[in-house]
Amino acid sequence: MSEKLNRPPLSVLVASEIEKMIRDGILSPGERIPPEKELAQRYGVGRSSIREALEAMEHIGMIETRQGVGRFLSENALSLLEGFNWGQMIQDAPIPALMEARALVEVATARLAAERATREDIEELERLLVLMKGSDLDGYFEAELQFHLTLARASQNPVLSKLVEILIGRVYSEAENFKRTTAASRKDIFLFEEMIESVALHDGERAAALMVAHLGGVKRLLAQ
């Protein structure tokens, strides 16, 4: 199994590190967040991962951006942090519960993606489908993971797409189960081809139905 599939997305790890800084009192409410470049150097990741982590925290109200000044920890960040411990909760959750949550979120993002996807989003989905068709099993899973994340981002809803990223990262750590059913996994290519067509035609209901079908198959394989 590809080692990369076992790791949470970098942006999730970065968000966890920033949350730890808040809990440890290194960052206080109202204090300015260090620049992206400084955080990228500190954690050894790209600035895009830092940006995704900060944007996710901003969407739940922990960080606020002041135009022309920078990002600041919101005054209610500590109370919000006590109410959100997504990483640990998802890490501890059983796979059936994660799949139920994933189905609810990904079906919604598939529908929205069909309504809102750009030409660039569709082209990226098509590129990933080509990779799936021509890759070995590890390459297939990596391309499929990126397909799901790209579709989620195409929904233009950063909260939902972040939830997809967190949930799918945890479920993909169970990818060893899929290796026993290579042929079944390859059959999903047909569903993904139809998914791209549905998105291109802005058919949200069809895209949602295809995601239901795909995740139903994933759930059955994980139950084996």
Helix content: 55-70%
Q: Structural class, from helix and strand content?
A: mainly alpha
As a percent range, the share of strand residues is under 5%
Could you tell me how far the N terminus lies from the C terminus, measured between alpha carbons in angstroms?
17 Å
CATH architecture field of the largest domain: Up-down Bundle
Order of helices and strands: HHHEEHHHHHHHH
Number of DSSP E strands: 2
Number of domains: 2
CATH fold naming of the largest domain: Four Helix Bundle (Hemerythrin (Met), subunit A)
Spatially, the strands of the biggest sheet line up as: 1-2
What is the name of the CATH superfamily of the largest domain? Answer: GntR ligand-binding domain-like
Low-confidence stretches: 1-8
Average per-residue pLDDT, rounded, comes to 81
Rg computed from alpha carbons, rounded to a whole number of angstroms? 18 Å
Write down the CATH class of the largest domain. Mainly Alpha
